[in-house]
Specification:
about 80% helix, single chain, 3 helices, about 80 residues, mainly alpha
């Protein structure tokens, strides 16, 4: 598979993981609450933890590196493996 395709897929994964933390915090609050406010969402957001954000950052960094490697290979005339 080409490096640029892998890089784009990793960037898509990073965006999904980043958004998933917000969705998980909203789901954790539950639909039965009568009063939703910013403090409650912030508490749920902190309860979810940093795991999804860390994986999103790692995925984004590796994705960008893969795209840069692909572009550097194309510029130098080498083909992707």
């Amino acid at each position: 598979m080409k490096y640029d395709h892998v890089g784009v897929e990793l960037l898509k994964t990073a965006a999904f993981l980043y958004a998933a933390r917000y969705v998980a915090a909203a789901l954790f609050m539950g639909p039965g609450l009568k009063n939703w406010d910013g403090n409650l969402f912030h508490a749920s957001y902190n309860y979810i933890g940093n795991g999804l954000t860390i994986w999103a950052i790692i995925s984004a960094i590796v994705g960008v590196v893969m795209i840069v490697v692909s572009l550097a290979g194309k510029r130098s005339g080498k083909t992707d493996a």
